[in-house]
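Progress against Task 2.4 (sequence-to-structure conversion) is shown through the following example record, which the project officer requested during the mid-term review.
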Amino acid sequence: MSRRKYRFQTALKLEMENAASALRTLWANRMRSVLTTTGIVIGVMTVTGVASLVQGLNRQVTDALGGLGASTVYIQKTPGVMMGGSREYWRRQDFRFEDVEALMQLEGVAAAVPETDFFILLKAPDGMEIAVALTGTTQDYPLVSHKSTVMGRFFTEYEVDSRRDVCVLGADVAERIYGSADPTGSIMDVGGRRMAVLGVMESFGEVMGETRDNVIFIPYTVFGNWADPREHLSLAVEIESGADMDRMLERIEACMRRLRGLSLDEDNDFELVTADQLLETYANISAGIYAAMLAISAIALIVGSIGIANIMLVSVTERTREIGLRKALGAKSTQILVQFLTESVILGLVGGILGIMAGSLLALGVSALTPIPAGLEAWSVVVAVLVSAMVGVGAGVFPAMRAARLEPVRALGYNQ
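Structure tokens generated for the chain above:
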């Protein structure tokens, strides 16, 4: 056997003995050990639980916003994400359907559509009434929304211009009214008006537990049968592939300012919203949540580390004679140091593991009771374990160094 291999095996054996000795010591004082790790458990539980919920929500929101299309620009009265009241935004002048034609003339625009919404009550086969979003738009909506029909077809330009009573159902509406049957070609009552069903749209998914498929699409030219089509009108523009998005945003902004008669010194009374902007805004919000939770968790971890340091100092005092005896029998200061550090690290790791388990259960409970999804990622678990180990090391350094510096003669003569 080579000298290097022998040294490695000897060091490994010593580490295993240290770990076994530390576990025996902690088990002998298990109630004290459990209470000592409480701060670590709370800190790691907070980080793990919040991280699980935020990561699950991140995936859901990213998928939903990604479906909006990176090449789509939404023109609306309100910002994509509002912090506070919206009354001042809704006082802005309404958009016009003629604005769509002007936007279509811009170089680099592939399509432009109006979108106007109104909620109606629809009677399901079981007799219950369900609230459904009625959306008025044009034949180019599938191009702008990046969704197509899974059954039948979307309405045509002719059907829009001739004000035909036709509609396309969202996935949830189709399932609720027709089950698994193909509704194409049927006639259904839509808010007191008989409409021919042309098809069913591909699913848009959901955000925060709210479905985006509870909708019926109709030509905007017949929307006036239910509500003023301009009251909640917004516009959506699809940019041609390869066009520069920043330049197109400038063109669209200039076009809208001209259409709305804004002077050079007047601010925009409309908002241009893209999927990338929404993702960036959401990322900033989630980052703020992370930072707040990390601050709270840091306080709990500091309290936990103080608890570990305190209990390790007590342990050093209680085992002073044991330390002196081990040193008298030839134990080196580094061995004493490693032993107490090992105990401290084990306390931190146990607290971290319990915190991860408690945080995961907390996230699953919140997810089961609310629309917020849970989705803990592997890197979060690794970070939590490493942080727990580091807290254990940091809290145990001073007590371990104090134990290692004890002189054998004084330690053997120590009386509690």
